[in-house]
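Hey,

The postdoc asked me to send both predictions to you directly instead of through the lab channel. I've kept everything plain text so nothing gets mangled by the mail client. Protein one:
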Amino acid sequence: MFPLHRNDLTCPYCYQRFRVKEILFRCSGLAGRRKRCSTSVDHVLGEQMGEFQPKPPPFAADGRRQEAVHPECGAVTHHRLCPRCHSMLPVQYVEIDNRLIALVGAKESGKTVYMTVLLHELANSVGERFGASLLGADDPTRTRFEDDYEKQLYERHQLFGATKSAVATAGGRRPLVFNLAVGRPKSRAREVTRTTLSFFDTAGEDMRTDHGVDQNVRYLSSADAIILLLDPLQLSGARPLADADALLPVEGGATDGPTAVLSRIIELLRASGAAPAQRKIGKPLAVAFTKMDALAGALPEGNPLARPPSVRPVFDDADGLAVHRYMQALLRDWAGHNLETSLANNFERYRFFGLSALGESPRLDDEGDGMQRVSSPHGWRVEDPLLWLLAEFGVIGKDGRR
């Protein structure tokens, strides 16, 4: 847990670090004692985040306080801004625990689908299990997640097109930022643990070249943890085992296959000073193999992935370790020892997961437009990587009993 009086923060939108006293404020736009401020384009916000809507002016004040008075108009404001990109920080961002989680993977590994289903489950069944609530931290997050992600998958039953590279997106892409509150059932005071979760859906192309990594994936070095999604159908050993009706992705090559993506992540973290050359990286890494439903026919009955999830409000670590060892054995059969050895030589903490965000293989649209559709998402074990990370952070409890 971060101490409440910490001085250094990381912006959940631009992933740049700053000191608390550097925090800016934005005028509320209401009439103050002297006048009402006019609005104009905030060019820093536009250049950094691609937002060019006119807004009231930003100004400097004591960022350690929750409110400030704008000297120009005399109006009181509670809108605190990141001093680097001018995004409005979530309420109580300085006072609560914050975790920045990077979501990365190779092209066609299903990152956008996974993120959508994960957040949907956190707001519904998983949230009910943990007494947790998940709320968008800003209007763009709330609007984008409902309109661009949730409705498309759960109402229109359409999969997403390829995520657009940040190189080709003016101002980059804005992360989805959520406030997660987890109740503590045994606490007499009904304590609630609050944290901010920031998800940045990076394109596979952004992990393919040095330019993409250096310019558009800097958030990896600021993230507290990483969820790495790998598509087993891109591994030569697993591909022949896929069910007959599975849609096979383009086989991963030398620049965008699972091993190549892992290598670039390690290079970036090492270059950013995450750990000296002779030491392992301390950030926990959840390595999740997606689309395991397509391999269900090749897996024996009673394997750990087929077990029903726990209903208790803790992370079942014994079950998690069983899944880790099972996926470890499968990975050796699929790709040999190199990928796992690279993980063991570079990360202090990593854990394997197997999951399916959709629960079934998508099908091509009958209209011939190339659109992939799914009847209705009924994923399994989607939440496991995030629950493990939250348990590592102490946000939720962990139970290692068998």
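Protein two:
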Amino acid sequence: MTSFEYVKKPGTPFHDRHVTKAEKIFVPYEETHRQQQKVGLIGAPLSKSSISHSGAAFAPSTIRRMFQAYTNYSVEDARNLPIESVVDYGDIVMHATDILESQKRIRESIEEILQQNQVEQLFILGGDHSISYPAISAFSMSKTVGVIQFDAHHDLRNLEDGGPTNGTPFRSLIENKRIQGEHLIQIGIRDFMNSEAYSKYAKEQGITVFTMKDVQDHSIEKIVQDSMSYLEEKKVDLIYVSVDMDVLDQAFAPGCPAIGPGGMDSHSLIKAFELLASNPLVKAMDIVEIDPTIDFRDMTSKIAAWLILSFLKRSFMI
């Protein structure tokens, strides 16, 4: 019988015995095998709450797929990221029509992970930016949370005009006393993408705002370091990092629903992540507002995967 030595199953990728793909870093969560991991990952595929057309619900699965494009080896550090070192809890099931119910499921799912004390750090893959409200709320139930938000927008919209949307998460957190305004730092806020009313609200609440001009005039390293030092002085229990990918210039993130010029370059955001990973107070982060249906060659999702790998590279050295 012929062995068909040179025939493969359809769709079988090329395999190099000396290469380990970055996807091998992740191990699926098994209810029957609760081995504690340092880092966890969970998807929150909610985009019905977006005020603009958004397919961000498809982002968690797309970002996961992007790890197939990378290896687990850091040339710069001459070290491999350990395989099966990040537990992947899968995706939280969203309600078909009820946004508040979906947010409740996000909060309760993250609370359960925290209560079981299974991981030291958690990545949350959105979804639109509305997922930050329930996610951060879960951490704030028993801890004082400081937030570093990378974003072109304040996301401090009023709740009367549209209810809980991707433009309201930080307003909701402050007004529901989940966080204090002085514990929120916004980096990358852009011209012509916000209103006077919400800039005034930010000042009234004691929010620290770094505009894109600040990022351009000062190094991202200094801004991030100063932000972490400031939150440490405020004696927060942990730092939560929220990354709206539209903080990047449209040239780097074509897969964001609210793209625009004048944003951050990808190198700066990667540098910021490496710095954040060196701080043991950073316990969680979300990456939101990627719509794979409008992306070009998965550019935006690839950056998201790269950010996670950059964070892990530094985090595993602590």
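Summary for protein two, as requested: The two ends are 55 Å apart (CA to CA).

Thanks,
C.
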